Amino acid sequence: MPEVGWSALAAFWGLSALGAWSQTLTGFALGLIVMSGTTLFGLLPVPVTAQIISILVLLNGAMVLWRDHHHADRKAVLAAVIGATPMIALGYWLLHWMVGSALEWLRLILGVFIAAAALQLVHRPQPWEARSPTPAFGIAGATGGIMGGLFATSGPPLIWLLYRQPLTLDTIRVTLVVYFVITQGFRLLLTVADRSFDRLTAIALAGALLAVALGTWAARRFPPPVSPLTIRRGALVLLFLSGVGLIGTAGVALARG
Predict the structure, then answer these.
(1) pLDDT digits (tens, 9 = 90+) for 78-99
(2) Mean pLDDT for the chain?
(3) Prediction pTM value
(4) Does residue 124 have a pLDDT over 70?
(5) pLDDT band at residue 215, thresholds of 50, 70 and 90?
(6) Measured distance CA(46)–CA(24) in Å, rounded
(7) 136-189 per-position pLDDT tens digit
(8) Cβ atoms of residues 17 and 215 within 8 Å
(9) How many structural domains compose the chain?
(10) Where are the transmembrane segments (predicted)?
């Protein structure tokens, strides 16, 4: 088990609270913020971080969905989950098979995709007039599934697609949360099956669970006094910054290698 100091754990818990606050308001960013920040600053190993993210998403999702579950777009969720599930298993297998620069190249590709998608949406923030066909949500789920298996961040393709749909912000937010709960629950089952839970994971998780609960509560109790369009644009900024963080992390690692 690698040695991790209390300062690194405190920073990790802070990222967890920030990610939960953002995900409660926008429907995404918990995994992106925690994974990109943790890997950028080398707080925890990637497998440990990904495992914890899966559990944190379940906690945040339970707190959000107990009241808002009826807002979810069930057809979109079903199609996305069907597409994502086999690819999450593939990505999880690759995480244990790939080492060194190969893993960093995958992280770099993910970061570029996230940043590019966010930039496109910033320049064209208004949603499309017509809803995308159901198979499009399956393709988005499958595209993100492999990165979900690798880094517990399967959201970017579906986030990009949903934020272009003629849907309310509540529908987008809750649909994403439902998707994350199901896919991260599946990924967590994979980690339990191979018995990869250790003492470091348990310690980091204990503080992160409290941080996520506080972040989720703060977002629900004290939501920012801004319009839905402002929240949507803020979500895109977070998406872009997460992509930049992943690009920076991979770039530094590849340069050192």
Answers:
(1) 999 999 999 999 999 888 787 6
(2) 86
(3) 0.80
(4) no
(5) very high
(6) 24
(7) 999 999 999 988 998 888 888 898 899 889 999 889 989 999 999 999 999 989
(8) yes
(9) 1
(10) 43-65, 77-99, 105-122, 134-152, 172-190, 202-219, 231-255
Q: Is the dihedral of CA 250, 54, 29, 126 positive or negative?
A: positive
117 with 162: CB under 8 angstroms?
A: no
The DSSP code sequence of 224-255 is -S--HHHHHHHHHHHHHHHHHHHHHHHHHHHH
Q: State how far the Cα of 157 lies from the Cα of 164, in Å rounded to an integer.
A: 11
Residue 206 corresponds to which amino acid?
A
pLDDT category of residue 257 using cuts at 50, 70 and 90: low
* Domain-located, residue 97: yes
Does the pLDDT of residue 1 top 60, yes or no?
no
Tokens of 24: 């409660």
DSSP letter (8 states) at residue 114: H
C-beta neighbour count of 58 within 10 angstroms: 18
Given a contact cutoff of 8 angstroms between Cβ atoms, the answer to whether 183 and 81 are in contact is yes
* Residues across the chain: 257
DSSP-derived 3-state class of residue 199: helix
250, part of any domain: yes
Q: Which domain holds residue 78?
A: 6-255
The label of the residue with tokens 């967890």 reads 16
> Does a structural domain hold residue 1?
no
66-to-71, 73, 86, 116, 220 alpha-carbon distances in Å: 11, 16, 28, 34, 13
Residue with tokens 């402002």: 230
Output the CA–CA distances (angstroms, integers) from residue 55 to 20, 192, 216, in the order listed.
12, 12, 14
For the segment 113-127, the average pLDDT, to the nearest whole number, is 73
Asked whether residue 102 is assigned to any structural domain, the reply reads yes
